[in-house]
What does this fold into?
Amino acid sequence: MKVFISMLLMMLVTYSQVFAIAPLNEKTIKEAQKYGIDNAKVSLGTFLKPWLSYEETSTKLDDSAEMAYVYTTYLLIATDARDNRINNKKVEVQDSEKIIVDYIDTLSFSIKLLGDNAGFAQSLVAVIEQGDNSIKAVKVLPQTAIYNEKTKKYMVQGFVYFKEDNIDINKPIKLVVGTNDNKHCFYFDLAKVN
It folds into this structure.
């Protein structure tokens, strides 16, 4: 009996470490596809809202604010299903499985940052703070800053990637992105995100 309980505990521990945010299986894939199909006609901002975090010092929570999206495997599948639905293509489980292969064991974020000059994001660095741990991004892909007439600031969009096995997906995190002129912080409660 002790052996059985020990094996069960090991399976539970392994299960929570292997799967990102939501367990990745056929049921989860179909749920994500359904979300994408059912929400194909809503605006992209509304579609992505459950995965959105505004910069913690933002006073206005709208398109003019700095923001980050956490791209879970669920969201990648849902986004693909949404795109296929919009383009009148069939949504297949096999296609979704192919999409997520490149993102297994990776936690990805899309970021939008604002700065006062065109070079503000040239030395962009990103870390995840979780408790006492600080996890460095394995890849940072910022785009060229462009002037945003609406905000009267320069805007850069990009992506940051982290190895998922360094992160406890059952605990909140803070994504901290450092630029030449500022520190930009985004809070995510990973346990509450698909």
